[in-house]
Each structure stands twice: as structure tokens, then as C-alpha cells.
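Students often ask what a holo structure prediction actually looks like on paper. The answer is less mysterious than it sounds. You provide the chain, you provide the ligand, and the output is a string of C-alpha cells encoding the 3D arrangement of the protein together with adenosine-5'-triphosphate.
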Amino acid sequence: MNDLIRLLRLYRPYAGWIALSIAASLAATLANIGLMAASGWFITAMALAGVVAQSFNYFTPAAVIRAFAILRTGGRYLDRLISHEATFRLLATSRGWLFAHLEPLAPGALSDFRSGDLMARLKGDVDRLELVFLRLLAPLAVAALSSIVVILTLARHDGRLAAAVGAALLVAGLILPFAAAFAGRGAGRRTAEISAEIRTSIVDDLDGLALLQLTGADRRRFDALDRRYGDLIAEEARLARSTGFGQSGVALAGDLAAGATLLIGVPLVSSGRMSGPDLTMATLLALAAFEAFNGVPAAFTGLAGTLASARRIFALVDRQPIVVDPAKPQNPPARFDLEFTRVGLTYPGASRPALADIDLCIPEGARVAIVGSSGAGKSSLVDLLVRFRNPTSGQIRLGGAPIDQLSGEAVRERIAVVPQNAHLFTATIADNLRLARPDASDAELREAAAAACLLSSIEALPQGFDTPVGIAGARLSGGEARRLAIARALLAASPILVLDEPSEGLDAETENDLFDALLARNVGRTLILLTHRFSAIERMDEIIVIEAGRIVERGRFDELSERDGAFRRLFDRIDETIGHP
Ligand SMILES: Nc1ncnc2c1ncn2[C@@H]1O[C@H](COP(=O)(O)OP(=O)(O)OP(=O)(O)O)[C@@H](O)[C@H]1O
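The corresponding C-alpha cells follow.
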């Protein structure tokens, strides 16, 4: 119930549109009921007049029938127009609203969601939200309001007629749909869950299709998906049976109401308390009133699925971001020295800290390499630096300002990071570069590409900077993709540049050229390298060695190489594994 109320609150900005749509739909439904009833009355009255050879003014009823017919058509057209407009507005804002909640959660608070799952929530689950409005709220309101009009009209003729039809409407409008919804509630919820699971799997499988083929797991995954589709069809069949039970119940209630009208009305006509045409009108009025209830059982059985989708959306919206910006962020500093004071980080649920007692000062313009074996804590350090996470203890300062007093955006504008698997968008090379600076000129793009040793490769392409990079950069080699990501970071012109294994996948010559270019073109800019490669480390001002989350050694390359310490142990190990000179 709480979920339903919360869902209805989402509709509040559209209360006007919803009221308009209900008004148009009500006009069309009443016109339809009126058309049936007036036509019945008219035909019976004409027939009776013919039997007794009496003159009959057919102009007025004919005009009323025409008016009802026009109102019905116009009302239906308006109803479709308004309800679609309201639905699209609702969908557009719901998706925007959900995305606005998602954005501050990335990356930390979303790390346990698969991208397919997020996609399923943003698409399928949001789509289902409209159903409450389109199939439940509006039809139920129209059915209830039109029933009141029908009951009041019948009550003017005879109270028993009104009571009989009212009772049947109550059964058709509430009791049967509730029974159908109760019978189908499990199937409705499971339909939403299985649909979301299938969407998630499809996105995952498509992402990893090449790997699935390589490992021969594609057939197994396909069969598993097929089985889930089988489950979905079975649940939908169950749901359809419940809906069908509800709908046939509504039709039966309508027929029973018409029968009851005749049962009560015929004696009234015989005793002269009711005219023949009025009885036809009352009978058709009762029958037509049930048409408004046709969609109600489906709306009720669909509610469980819609609420399951709403719960999946609320679960996302209710997540708290890992890092919250200060209410009043400080002005960004003018200098860019980095200072870590006794910084520690323990991931939730972890038995040991990923980082502990990190004391580190990187002056503006310094060139520093941070090295350590896999899992030592290098990426965690960078996450803290760009405020993707807060340290569990200690403090980080940028230009003297505690970074938790700065907005995340201000920090990230000043610290550009190129992670190991930097994402490239499915767009052209130029589009990917301009993500960092939309107003960058062509000359600036060329300069950034040259600084990342990528210009000659781009110029060799027939479409140059307008070459599409393929899905997530699939048309580029690993080394090219990495250099494109570096060029993008260089274009951002942030005073601090952090590169995670920038030369991975490059041959020795290109690697050398890349570091020559990076060092020559970024004088004055702080450069932090996370790397295992000697050619890069040798040229850095300082090397910081991390082991199990702690700084265990630091110094210049020649000092550390001579010392029999952690640095030598680390690189002896790498030499053994990759046979580095
Ligand atoms: N989101 C997370 N939740 C829990 N533990 C994490 C998380 N991210 C990293 N860790 C753990 O923290 C430790 C440091 O990981 P980190 O990714 O910082 O290492 P790294 O030095 O960057 O490794 P690599 O060179 O392989 O990228 C590891 O033990 C890792 O398992």
C-alpha cells in the first residue's frame, strides 16, 4: 500500500492532465451509454407509435442520438490525445527523475548493480509505471463516476432497479477485480521480476558475447534464457487466466443486471408505472454501464507487477550516495599541492584496511610514480583523490583545502584521471575528445592527440577525427584506445593528471615516445603515474611503493634501485613474470 501511495505521489505534478484525461474519457463513456439508451428508447417508441398509428416527433430524439454519437467520437479522440500526452510527460520525467537519483550514486553506490539491471530498471520498470495511471486510475475513476450517473438515472424510475444494477456494478467494479488481482498477484509480481531478469541477462550476454563464444558457453546461456522465457510465458498465462476470469465475471454481471432490470421492469410496465421505451432504455443503460468496467480486472491483475517494478525503482532511489557534497562547498584553491595525512580506507565488510596511515605530499608540478603489486591499493588511493570515496580516517588536502570541503565536481575538474579501462563512447574520435572540452577547436584536438602520440594514427584514417570508434571503442586497438583516453584527459587541461598504466599494450618505441611527449608537453602540471613500467618510472621525480595498503618505500629511481627493499623485490618479481630487461 505504501508503495502505491508513493507511486501516486509521483503523479502529483500531472494531476491536471490526469483530471483532464478522466473528464474526456468520462464524457466519451457517458455519451456511449447515452447513445445506447437513447437509441433503445427511440426504436421502441417508434415501434409502439407505429403499432397504434400515432404521430411521433422523431426530430428531438434523433438530434439527441446524433449529439451523443458526436460526443462519443470527440470524447474518445480527446481522451486518447490527453492520456497519451500525460503518459509521455510522466514517462519522460520519471526517467529523468530516476537518472538524477542515479548520477550521484555512481560509481561507488552502484558497484553492486549490473549494467543490464540498471538498464532494466530505467527502461522496463519505468515503462510499467504508466500502467497505474493509464489502466487503473483513469478507468476506475471513469467507471465509478459513470456508474453513479447510471444509478441516479435508474433511481428516478424505480429504486429497486437502481439497487439491482448498483449491486451488480459493485460486484463487477470491485469484488471481481479484487478476486482476480488476489488470484494473479504472485504471477504479476513474478512477471515483473522475470522480465527484469531477462533484460539484465540479455544486456550482460550481449556485452560478453565474444567471450561466451570463445568459451563455448553461448549455447548454455541461450538455453538458460530460453527456459526463463518459458517461465515468463507460464506466468503471463496465469495472469491472463486471472484477468479472463475477472473480465468474464464483469460480462456476466452486466447480463445479470440487464436480466434483473427486465425482471423488475416488466411488472412496472404491465402496471403502467413505467413506459415500454423507458424499460428498453433502462435495460440498455444497465448493459452499457458495464462496458466501462471491461478494463478494470486487467488493471487490478497488472497492479502487482507494476508495484514490483515500482519497488525496484524505489530501491535504487533510496540508496544513499557514498560521498555527499558539503552543503556550502569552499571556493576551489588556487594552488594544487596534494597532501595526505594519515589517510586510511576500509571498505564496508572488509576484514583489513585497503589503505592505512598514508602520509604523502605531492607538490604542484611534481612527477610521481605510485607502484605496488596487484591489490596493493593504488586504485583505492585514486578513488579517494577524486572523491569517489571518503577516507575512513585522515584527511586529504588540495592546495591546502580539505577536499571534503570542496564539491566533487570542483575536485574532478582539477584532477583528471585516466583509468586502466577508460570508457570510450560509441561516437567519433572527435566526439570522444570533446567530452572533456566541448568547445575545443580542431587545432586543440590535434594538439591533444599529438601529446598522446596518436595524431599520426588518426591522420592515417580516411575519416580522420570523424572516424567512429565503434561500440565502446571496439574498432581501436587497446593501445590506441588508451592513448585516446589520455588525449581526452590532456584536453581537459586539469592541473593534476593521474594515469593508470598509460603505456599498457604499447611497443617499446611508442611507449618511449608517449612518455617523451607527456613529460615535454606537461611542464608545470602534476603527473601521477600508476605503473609497472621501468621506462616511465625512471623519469619520475619520486617513486612511492605501496604494499598491502601502506607506503613502504619512497625515493628516486636510482636510490630505490640500489636499495635492497620493496621496490627491488617488486620489480624482480615483475622481471621474472614478464621477462623485462
Ligand atoms: N569496492 C571494493 N569493495 C571492497 N574491497 C575492495 C573494493 N575495491 C578494492 N577493494 C580491495 O581493496 C584492495 C586494494 O584494491 P585496489 O583496487 O586499490 O588495488 P590496486 O593496487 O589498484 O590493484 P591493481 O593494480 O590490480 O588494479 C584489494 O584488496 C581489493 O580487493
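The mean pLDDT is 89.
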